Amino acid sequence: MTTKTPREPKFRRRAEARPDEVLDAALSLFTEKGYARTTVDQVAKRAGFSKGTVYLYFTSKEAILEGLVRRTIEPIAKAAFETMRDYRGDPRPVLAQFLRALARALATPKTRAVAMIILQEAPVAPNIAALYRTAVLERMLPAMIALLAQGVAGGHIRTIDPELTARSVIGPVIAHLLLSETFSIRPEGGLQMDRLIENHLTLLFAGLELPVGETP
Known about the structure:
Blueprint: H1 18-33, H2 40-47, H3 51-57, H4 61-72, H5 74-84, H6 92-106, H7 109-121, H8 126-153, H9 162-182, H10 193-208
Helix pairs in contact: 1-2, 1-4, 4-7, 4-8, 5-6, 5-8, 6-10, 7-9, 8-9, 9-10
């Protein structure tokens, strides 16, 4: 007769693995129940920890959501910022790189779920809106605006309003997510985020093209 080796209790796992387990449990509950209807007690139970253990790593439910943003969304914004801030030249290749990376990230269910939690909760939760603004938007948007402005100044793209154009770059992605995930209106074949991005780039780049007869 063989004796099964008992699984190591969760409280004895390496401490560095625990925050990710808490975040995974929270994300599943936020997705199932909604952020507002989820409690820290429920997160702790789903993760297999005591409530006190959760508080060792996250001081509140908002801190857990911030952890999810920092784990999934912030790295995308950070990579975009680092690519855009020192770039000089035609901004279109950089915009394409950013949007394609965003498409790959949002094709991942966990990343898409975090994005949707922010989009759905931010309008009624000022603290969540402020969290996302600080962690993501206040870094990425100014970098994109500067990227577009130097493209105009260098004669690489037509004269446009850089600030409004930056909103036009990101806007279709947000609209596509809302239509798909909130209203269940999806293209044939599912989310099709990669196709959306390629179609968006075609339209965007046509709009940024220099007028006929104008050269850089």
